[in-house]
Write a structure and sequence with these properties.
One of its GO terms (biological process) is phosphorelay signal transduction system. This protein has 123 residues and is α/β, with parallel strands linked by helices. Helix content is 44%, strand content 21%. The model has no long low-confidence stretch (mean pLDDT 94).
Length: 123
């Protein structure tokens, strides 16, 4: 079964790394480079999973996008994995408050990403 994953990160290299890691799996990958694009993409495509960078430029950061997704009745069931280099207790708490389902700390290995994706999706 093909699953749709939305990757939102302002760094094209990291989006590419995540996309390449998921290649070969039963995934369709959609990309966004900021929070506004991520939220619009989530609403348009209704992904099965969102991999969301916390620190993004523009109007919405990852916490705000996550909170908006979880507040939307049509999207609240979509799991969100927050990706960040910030691993302080306050950062993790902010992710929990926003409704994140999992946290992935940068730098992470491709295997760690795949394990987290498959565990979150139950595949």
């Amino acid at each position: 079964m093909n699953r749709t994953i939305l990757i939102a990160d302002d760094h094209a290299d990291l989006r590419k790394l995540i996309r390449m890691t998921l290649l070969g799996g039963p995934f369709t990958v959609i990309e966004a480079e900021d929070g506004v694009q991520a939220l619009a993409g989530a609403r348009r495509h209704r992904p099965d999973l969102i991999i969301l960078d916390v620190m993004m430029p523009g109007e919405l950061d990852g916490y705000q996008v996550c909170a908006a997704v979880k507040a939307d009745p049509a999207l609240r069931h979509v799991p969100v994995i927050l990706v960040t280099a910030r691993a302080q207790r306050a950062d993790l708490q902010a992710g929990q408050e926003a409704g994140a389902d999992a946290y992935l700390i940068k730098p992470f290995s491709p295997m760690e990403l795949l394990e987290r994706v498959t565990a979150t999706l139950g595949t």
